[in-house]
Amino acid sequence: MMVTKRRSLRVAVVGVLGAASLALAGTAMAATPAAHTAAPAGARSAAAAKPAITATPSVSSVRAWTLFRVTGKTTGIKAGTKVTLQQKQHGKWVTLPASTPVNSGGSYALRVELGLKGKNDLRMVSGSTASPVFRVTVS
């Protein structure tokens, strides 16, 4: 079967790598209510509910069709929610068939192969929340 030119320019995803569980550190409560300073309930929940995603590639450059990982953490996104890889192509963000669920600690890891040679601008998204753009150069 012949691989088309368009297909060769697309990004292929090999699979999803299970992210390692992270232990959450508990916060100690003050012994007396007077010693504990708390923000208003509305402000506290609004800050906790603001979704954010980070993304870090395991390499900055890679040969075409060679595996690398994208890992990151999320805040304000429920465990089990999928985060998806996007690539900038011709000035537009294209959603690639590469996604992985967020684990209970808020982190994720994704195994990726890129076939589009040159500088690839990528980001991770979940709904309307996007990570900062990161670049992987494919040779």
TrEMBL record:
List keywords of the entry alphabetically.
Answer: Signal
**Highest taxon above the source species:** Bacteria
Where in the sequence is the signal peptide annotated?
A: 1-30
Entry protein name: Bacterial spore germination immunoglobulin-like domain-containing protein
- The protein's organism comes out as Streptomyces malaysiense
Source taxonomy lineage? Bacteria, Bacillati, Actinomycetota, Actinomycetes, Kitasatosporales
